Amino acid sequence: MADVAFRRLHSASPARRLPQFPWDRLAPYKEQAAAHAGGLVDLSVGGPVDEVAPLIREALCEAAARPGYPTVAGTPGLREAIRSWLHRHTGVGPDVAVLPTVGSKELVANLPAQLGIVAGEAVSYPDIAYPTYEIGAVLAKADALPVADPRDGAGSRLRLAWINYPTNPTGEVASVEYLRDLVRWARESGVVLAGDECYLTLGWDEEHPPVSILDPRVNDGDLTGLLAAHSLSKRSSLAGYRSAFLAGDPAIIADLLEIRRHSGFMIPWPVQQATIAALHDEEHAIEQRARYGARRQTLLDAFESAGFRIEGSHAGLYLWTTRDEDCWTTIEWLADRGILAAPGEFYGAGGGRHVRVALTATDERVAEAALRLAKE
Fold first, then answer.
1. Cα–Cα distance measured from residue 171 to residue 152, given in angstroms and rounded to the nearest whole number
2. How far is Cα of residue 312 from the mean position of the Cα atoms in its chain?
3. What number of H helices and E strands is found in the chain?
4. How many whole angstroms separate alpha carbon 177 and alpha carbon 89?
5. What is the pTM for the complete model shown?
6. Which of 120, 190, 280, 302 lies 20 to 30 angstroms, CA to CA, from 287?
7. Residue pLDDT, tens place only, 205-215
8. Which of 295-325 are b and which e, b meaning 16 or more Cβ less than 10 Å from the residue's Cβ?
9. Residue 169 Cα distances to 43, 46, 78, 200, angstroms
10. How many CB atoms lie within 10 A of CB 206?
Protein backbone atom coordinates (compact mmCIF):
# COMPACT_ATOMS: atom_id res chain seq x y z
CA MET A 1 0.00 0.00 0.00
CA ALA A 2 2.83 2.37 0.82
CA ASP A 3 4.35 1.71 -2.60
CA VAL A 4 1.05 2.60 -4.27
CA ALA A 5 0.79 5.78 -2.21
CA PHE A 6 4.30 6.86 -3.16
CA ARG A 7 3.61 6.19 -6.86
CA ARG A 8 0.43 8.25 -6.61
CA LEU A 9 2.38 11.08 -4.95
CA HIS A 10 5.04 10.91 -7.63
CA SER A 11 2.50 11.02 -10.45
CA ALA A 12 0.89 14.10 -8.91
CA SER A 13 4.19 16.00 -8.69
CA PRO A 14 4.20 19.45 -10.34
CA ALA A 15 7.18 18.21 -12.35
CA ARG A 16 4.79 16.02 -14.33
CA ARG A 17 3.02 19.16 -15.62
CA LEU A 18 6.16 20.86 -16.90
CA PRO A 19 7.25 20.79 -20.55
CA GLN A 20 10.62 19.38 -21.54
CA PHE A 21 13.43 21.71 -20.48
CA PRO A 22 14.07 23.46 -23.82
CA TRP A 23 17.85 23.60 -23.68
CA ASP A 24 18.05 19.79 -23.51
CA ARG A 25 16.86 19.72 -27.13
CA LEU A 26 19.83 21.86 -28.19
CA ALA A 27 22.46 19.46 -26.80
CA PRO A 28 23.12 17.53 -30.06
CA TYR A 29 23.69 20.80 -31.94
CA LYS A 30 26.07 22.02 -29.25
CA GLU A 31 28.06 18.82 -29.67
CA GLN A 32 28.03 19.30 -33.43
CA ALA A 33 29.24 22.91 -33.14
CA ALA A 34 31.92 21.99 -30.60
CA ALA A 35 33.44 19.58 -33.14
CA HIS A 36 34.41 22.51 -35.40
CA ALA A 37 38.16 22.84 -35.87
CA GLY A 38 38.13 26.34 -34.41
CA GLY A 39 36.03 25.34 -31.41
CA LEU A 40 32.56 26.32 -30.26
CA VAL A 41 31.20 29.86 -30.46
CA ASP A 42 28.26 29.77 -28.07
CA LEU A 43 25.73 32.49 -28.85
CA SER A 44 22.78 30.57 -27.41
CA VAL A 45 22.43 31.31 -23.69
CA GLY A 46 22.53 34.96 -22.66
CA GLY A 47 24.84 34.37 -19.70
CA PRO A 48 27.44 37.08 -18.98
CA VAL A 49 31.09 36.23 -19.62
CA ASP A 50 32.83 39.42 -18.53
CA GLU A 51 34.56 39.91 -15.21
CA VAL A 52 32.58 41.31 -12.30
CA ALA A 53 33.72 44.86 -11.53
CA PRO A 54 36.35 45.04 -8.75
CA LEU A 55 34.30 47.35 -6.52
CA ILE A 56 31.43 44.80 -6.52
CA ARG A 57 33.74 41.90 -5.67
CA GLU A 58 35.34 43.94 -2.91
CA ALA A 59 31.94 44.68 -1.37
CA LEU A 60 31.08 40.97 -1.52
CA CYS A 61 34.32 39.93 0.16
CA GLU A 62 34.14 42.57 2.87
CA ALA A 63 30.70 41.26 3.88
CA ALA A 64 31.64 37.57 3.80
CA ALA A 65 32.35 37.20 7.53
CA ARG A 66 28.81 37.94 8.70
CA PRO A 67 27.31 34.71 10.20
CA GLY A 68 23.67 35.72 10.79
CA TYR A 69 20.59 35.40 8.62
CA PRO A 70 19.86 38.17 6.11
CA THR A 71 16.42 39.75 5.92
CA VAL A 72 14.01 39.05 3.08
CA ALA A 73 13.19 42.75 2.80
CA GLY A 74 16.87 43.62 2.46
CA THR A 75 18.82 46.12 4.52
CA PRO A 76 17.76 49.78 4.59
CA GLY A 77 20.90 50.47 2.56
CA LEU A 78 19.85 47.99 -0.12
CA ARG A 79 16.32 49.34 -0.34
CA GLU A 80 17.67 52.88 -0.61
CA ALA A 81 20.09 51.83 -3.38
CA ILE A 82 17.28 50.16 -5.33
CA ARG A 83 15.02 53.20 -5.00
CA SER A 84 17.81 55.55 -6.02
CA TRP A 85 18.60 53.47 -9.11
CA LEU A 86 14.94 53.24 -10.09
CA HIS A 87 14.48 56.98 -9.67
CA ARG A 88 17.45 57.67 -11.94
CA HIS A 89 16.45 55.20 -14.64
CA THR A 90 12.64 55.20 -14.62
CA GLY A 91 11.70 58.54 -13.05
CA VAL A 92 9.57 56.83 -10.39
CA GLY A 93 9.31 58.62 -7.04
CA PRO A 94 12.10 57.97 -4.51
CA ASP A 95 9.69 56.34 -2.04
CA VAL A 96 8.56 53.51 -4.35
CA ALA A 97 7.93 50.15 -2.65
CA VAL A 98 10.70 47.66 -3.43
CA LEU A 99 11.50 44.02 -2.70
CA PRO A 100 14.80 42.19 -3.35
CA THR A 101 14.45 38.83 -5.11
CA VAL A 102 16.77 35.85 -5.53
CA GLY A 103 17.34 36.58 -9.19
CA SER A 104 14.45 37.33 -11.53
CA LYS A 105 13.77 33.79 -12.79
CA GLU A 106 12.53 32.56 -9.41
CA LEU A 107 10.31 35.61 -9.20
CA VAL A 108 8.76 34.95 -12.61
CA ALA A 109 8.22 31.28 -11.79
CA ASN A 110 6.73 31.94 -8.34
CA LEU A 111 4.79 35.18 -8.75
CA PRO A 112 1.44 33.68 -9.87
CA ALA A 113 1.30 31.33 -6.88
CA GLN A 114 2.48 34.05 -4.50
CA LEU A 115 -0.28 36.33 -5.78
CA GLY A 116 -2.80 33.63 -4.88
CA ILE A 117 -3.72 32.75 -8.46
CA VAL A 118 -5.36 29.32 -8.61
CA ALA A 119 -6.78 26.75 -11.02
CA GLY A 120 -9.48 28.23 -13.21
CA GLU A 121 -7.80 31.64 -13.28
CA ALA A 122 -5.36 32.78 -15.95
CA VAL A 123 -1.92 34.28 -16.45
CA SER A 124 -1.08 35.86 -19.80
CA TYR A 125 2.34 36.49 -21.29
CA PRO A 126 3.73 37.45 -24.71
CA ASP A 127 3.25 34.83 -27.42
CA ILE A 128 6.96 35.06 -28.24
CA ALA A 129 8.62 35.13 -24.85
CA TYR A 130 10.97 33.84 -22.20
CA PRO A 131 9.59 30.35 -21.33
CA THR A 132 9.43 30.87 -17.55
CA TYR A 133 6.23 32.95 -17.73
CA GLU A 134 4.40 29.81 -18.80
CA ILE A 135 6.10 27.78 -16.06
CA GLY A 136 4.83 30.19 -13.39
CA ALA A 137 1.27 29.68 -14.59
CA VAL A 138 1.68 25.91 -14.74
CA LEU A 139 3.08 25.72 -11.20
CA ALA A 140 0.08 27.69 -9.94
CA LYS A 141 -2.25 25.32 -11.88
CA ALA A 142 -3.58 28.38 -13.68
CA ASP A 143 -4.38 28.69 -17.37
CA ALA A 144 -1.33 29.85 -19.33
CA LEU A 145 -2.29 32.30 -22.10
CA PRO A 146 0.28 33.30 -24.72
CA VAL A 147 -1.08 36.48 -26.33
CA ALA A 148 0.07 39.12 -28.79
CA ASP A 149 -1.40 41.77 -26.48
CA PRO A 150 -2.51 41.36 -22.85
CA ARG A 151 -5.97 42.62 -23.77
CA ASP A 152 -6.40 39.50 -25.91
CA GLY A 153 -6.76 37.56 -22.64
CA ALA A 154 -9.82 39.48 -21.51
CA GLY A 155 -12.79 37.34 -20.51
CA SER A 156 -10.66 34.41 -19.31
CA ARG A 157 -10.58 35.12 -15.56
CA LEU A 158 -7.25 36.83 -16.16
CA ARG A 159 -5.51 37.79 -12.92
CA LEU A 160 -1.92 38.53 -13.99
CA ALA A 161 -0.64 39.88 -17.30
CA TRP A 162 3.10 39.76 -17.96
CA ILE A 163 4.66 42.18 -20.39
CA ASN A 164 8.34 42.23 -21.30
CA TYR A 165 9.89 45.40 -22.67
CA PRO A 166 12.58 45.38 -23.91
CA THR A 167 11.52 41.94 -25.09
CA ASN A 168 13.50 38.73 -24.87
CA PRO A 169 14.06 37.44 -27.54
CA THR A 170 12.86 39.99 -30.11
CA GLY A 171 14.33 43.18 -28.66
CA GLU A 172 11.09 45.12 -29.13
CA VAL A 173 10.28 48.16 -27.01
CA ALA A 174 6.97 49.81 -26.14
CA SER A 175 6.03 53.46 -26.39
CA VAL A 176 4.73 55.60 -23.54
CA GLU A 177 1.34 55.76 -25.26
CA TYR A 178 1.03 52.00 -25.63
CA LEU A 179 1.98 51.40 -22.01
CA ARG A 180 -0.46 54.09 -20.82
CA ASP A 181 -3.27 52.28 -22.62
CA LEU A 182 -2.26 48.96 -21.07
CA VAL A 183 -2.16 50.44 -17.57
CA ARG A 184 -5.63 51.95 -18.04
CA TRP A 185 -7.01 48.64 -19.31
CA ALA A 186 -5.40 46.58 -16.52
CA ARG A 187 -6.86 48.80 -13.81
CA GLU A 188 -10.32 48.78 -15.34
CA SER A 189 -10.11 44.97 -15.61
CA GLY A 190 -8.70 44.30 -12.13
CA VAL A 191 -5.60 42.66 -13.62
CA VAL A 192 -2.12 42.94 -12.11
CA LEU A 193 0.21 44.20 -14.85
CA ALA A 194 3.77 42.94 -14.33
CA GLY A 195 6.59 44.29 -16.47
CA ASP A 196 9.77 42.27 -16.87
CA GLU A 197 12.22 45.12 -17.45
CA CYS A 198 15.56 43.36 -17.04
CA TYR A 199 16.95 44.90 -20.24
CA LEU A 200 15.72 48.44 -19.62
CA THR A 201 19.17 50.08 -19.76
CA LEU A 202 20.25 48.22 -22.90
CA GLY A 203 18.52 50.24 -25.62
CA TRP A 204 20.36 50.56 -28.95
CA ASP A 205 17.99 52.69 -31.02
CA GLU A 206 17.51 56.33 -30.06
CA GLU A 207 14.21 56.39 -31.93
CA HIS A 208 12.90 53.47 -29.84
CA PRO A 209 14.05 54.12 -26.24
CA PRO A 210 12.97 51.59 -23.59
CA VAL A 211 10.28 52.83 -21.19
CA SER A 212 9.32 51.46 -17.77
CA ILE A 213 5.77 51.00 -16.52
CA LEU A 214 7.04 52.78 -13.39
CA ASP A 215 7.61 55.94 -15.45
CA PRO A 216 5.19 58.69 -14.31
CA ARG A 217 4.50 59.45 -17.98
CA VAL A 218 2.94 55.98 -18.14
CA ASN A 219 1.06 55.83 -14.83
CA ASP A 220 0.61 59.49 -13.75
CA GLY A 221 2.42 58.70 -10.51
CA ASP A 222 -0.06 55.99 -9.47
CA LEU A 223 1.46 52.49 -9.14
CA THR A 224 -1.77 50.69 -8.24
CA GLY A 225 -1.78 47.24 -9.80
CA LEU A 226 1.69 47.62 -11.32
CA LEU A 227 4.85 45.59 -10.72
CA ALA A 228 8.23 45.90 -12.43
CA ALA A 229 11.02 43.32 -12.22
CA HIS A 230 14.67 44.27 -12.64
CA SER A 231 17.90 42.32 -12.54
CA LEU A 232 21.63 42.90 -12.18
CA SER A 233 22.50 39.75 -14.13
CA LYS A 234 23.12 41.57 -17.41
CA ARG A 235 23.75 45.17 -16.31
CA SER A 236 26.49 44.22 -13.86
CA SER A 237 27.38 40.65 -14.95
CA LEU A 238 25.93 39.31 -11.69
CA ALA A 239 24.03 36.27 -13.00
CA GLY A 240 25.96 34.09 -10.55
CA TYR A 241 25.07 36.36 -7.62
CA ARG A 242 21.29 35.94 -8.11
CA SER A 243 20.48 39.57 -7.44
CA ALA A 244 17.27 41.21 -8.65
CA PHE A 245 14.35 43.22 -7.32
CA LEU A 246 10.68 44.02 -7.74
CA ALA A 247 9.06 47.43 -7.43
CA GLY A 248 5.57 48.90 -7.70
CA ASP A 249 2.21 48.76 -5.94
CA PRO A 250 2.95 49.06 -2.19
CA ALA A 251 0.02 46.86 -1.15
CA ILE A 252 1.07 44.02 -3.46
CA ILE A 253 4.73 44.38 -2.46
CA ALA A 254 3.75 44.19 1.22
CA ASP A 255 1.77 40.99 0.66
CA LEU A 256 4.62 39.43 -1.32
CA LEU A 257 7.09 40.36 1.41
CA GLU A 258 4.99 38.55 4.01
CA ILE A 259 4.72 35.43 1.85
CA ARG A 260 8.41 35.45 1.02
CA ARG A 261 9.38 35.95 4.66
CA HIS A 262 7.53 32.79 5.59
CA SER A 263 9.06 30.97 2.61
CA GLY A 264 12.66 32.11 3.15
CA PHE A 265 13.28 33.85 -0.16
CA MET A 266 16.27 35.90 0.97
CA ILE A 267 19.33 37.28 -0.81
CA PRO A 268 22.53 36.35 1.08
CA TRP A 269 24.01 39.18 3.10
CA PRO A 270 27.23 39.47 1.05
CA VAL A 271 25.20 39.63 -2.17
CA GLN A 272 23.06 42.40 -0.70
CA GLN A 273 26.20 44.42 -0.01
CA ALA A 274 27.57 43.72 -3.48
CA THR A 275 24.25 44.83 -4.96
CA ILE A 276 24.41 48.12 -3.11
CA ALA A 277 27.85 48.77 -4.58
CA ALA A 278 26.66 47.81 -8.07
CA LEU A 279 23.55 49.99 -8.01
CA HIS A 280 25.36 53.08 -6.76
CA ASP A 281 28.05 52.81 -9.45
CA GLU A 282 27.15 53.65 -13.05
CA GLU A 283 30.66 53.64 -14.51
CA HIS A 284 31.04 49.84 -14.65
CA ALA A 285 27.55 49.52 -16.19
CA ILE A 286 28.35 52.08 -18.86
CA GLU A 287 31.57 50.23 -19.71
CA GLN A 288 29.72 46.90 -19.90
CA ARG A 289 27.04 48.41 -22.09
CA ALA A 290 29.72 49.66 -24.48
CA ARG A 291 31.19 46.14 -24.71
CA TYR A 292 27.79 44.72 -25.62
CA GLY A 293 27.20 47.51 -28.12
CA ALA A 294 30.45 46.74 -29.94
CA ARG A 295 29.70 43.01 -30.01
CA ARG A 296 26.21 43.71 -31.25
CA GLN A 297 27.47 45.75 -34.19
CA THR A 298 30.02 43.08 -35.14
CA LEU A 299 27.43 40.31 -35.09
CA LEU A 300 24.71 42.36 -36.76
CA ASP A 301 27.02 43.19 -39.68
CA ALA A 302 28.22 39.60 -39.94
CA PHE A 303 24.79 37.99 -39.91
CA GLU A 304 23.36 40.48 -42.39
CA SER A 305 26.34 39.95 -44.71
CA ALA A 306 25.72 36.18 -44.51
CA GLY A 307 22.14 36.63 -45.74
CA PHE A 308 20.23 36.82 -42.47
CA ARG A 309 17.52 39.40 -41.83
CA ILE A 310 17.53 41.12 -38.43
CA GLU A 311 14.08 41.97 -37.04
CA GLY A 312 13.26 44.10 -34.00
CA SER A 313 16.40 43.94 -31.86
CA HIS A 314 16.12 47.59 -30.80
CA ALA A 315 17.22 46.72 -27.27
CA GLY A 316 18.49 43.91 -25.09
CA LEU A 317 21.27 41.39 -25.53
CA TYR A 318 20.06 39.47 -28.59
CA LEU A 319 19.60 39.63 -32.32
CA TRP A 320 16.32 38.18 -33.54
CA THR A 321 17.16 36.94 -36.99
CA THR A 322 15.88 34.71 -39.78
CA ARG A 323 16.81 33.09 -43.08
CA ASP A 324 13.12 32.48 -43.83
CA GLU A 325 13.36 28.78 -43.05
CA ASP A 326 12.57 26.45 -40.15
CA CYS A 327 14.61 27.53 -37.14
CA TRP A 328 16.12 24.06 -36.66
CA THR A 329 17.45 24.15 -40.22
CA THR A 330 19.17 27.43 -39.38
CA ILE A 331 20.48 26.00 -36.10
CA GLU A 332 22.04 23.09 -37.98
CA TRP A 333 23.52 25.43 -40.61
CA LEU A 334 25.17 27.48 -37.86
CA ALA A 335 26.33 24.40 -35.96
CA ASP A 336 28.15 23.20 -39.10
CA ARG A 337 30.17 26.40 -38.75
CA GLY A 338 30.79 25.91 -35.04
CA ILE A 339 28.22 28.52 -33.97
CA LEU A 340 25.42 27.77 -31.52
CA ALA A 341 22.30 29.96 -31.36
CA ALA A 342 18.89 29.47 -29.75
CA PRO A 343 15.99 28.25 -31.92
CA GLY A 344 13.11 30.69 -31.97
CA GLU A 345 10.71 27.84 -31.29
CA PHE A 346 11.92 27.88 -27.66
CA TYR A 347 10.09 31.20 -27.28
CA GLY A 348 6.76 30.24 -28.79
CA ALA A 349 5.27 28.85 -31.98
CA GLY A 350 5.54 32.26 -33.64
CA GLY A 351 9.31 32.06 -33.41
CA GLY A 352 9.59 28.91 -35.50
CA ARG A 353 11.40 30.61 -38.39
CA HIS A 354 13.83 32.68 -36.31
CA VAL A 355 16.89 32.15 -34.17
CA ARG A 356 18.08 34.19 -31.21
CA VAL A 357 21.73 35.24 -31.25
CA ALA A 358 23.17 36.32 -27.89
CA LEU A 359 25.72 39.12 -27.55
CA THR A 360 27.15 37.49 -24.44
CA ALA A 361 30.34 35.95 -25.78
CA THR A 362 33.87 37.25 -25.44
CA ASP A 363 35.26 39.69 -27.98
CA GLU A 364 37.50 36.93 -29.32
CA ARG A 365 34.60 34.48 -29.85
CA VAL A 366 32.40 37.17 -31.40
CA ALA A 367 35.18 38.03 -33.83
CA GLU A 368 35.60 34.34 -34.63
CA ALA A 369 31.88 34.00 -35.38
CA ALA A 370 32.04 37.01 -37.69
CA LEU A 371 35.06 35.50 -39.48
CA ARG A 372 33.25 32.22 -40.09
CA LEU A 373 30.12 33.97 -41.36
CA ALA A 374 32.22 36.15 -43.67
CA LYS A 375 33.31 33.01 -45.56
CA GLU A 376 29.73 32.43 -46.74
1. 21
2. 17
3. 13, 13
4. 18
5. 0.93
6. 302
7. 998 899 999 99
8. bbebbbebbeebebebebbbbbbbbbbbbee
9. 13, 10, 30, 14
10. 7
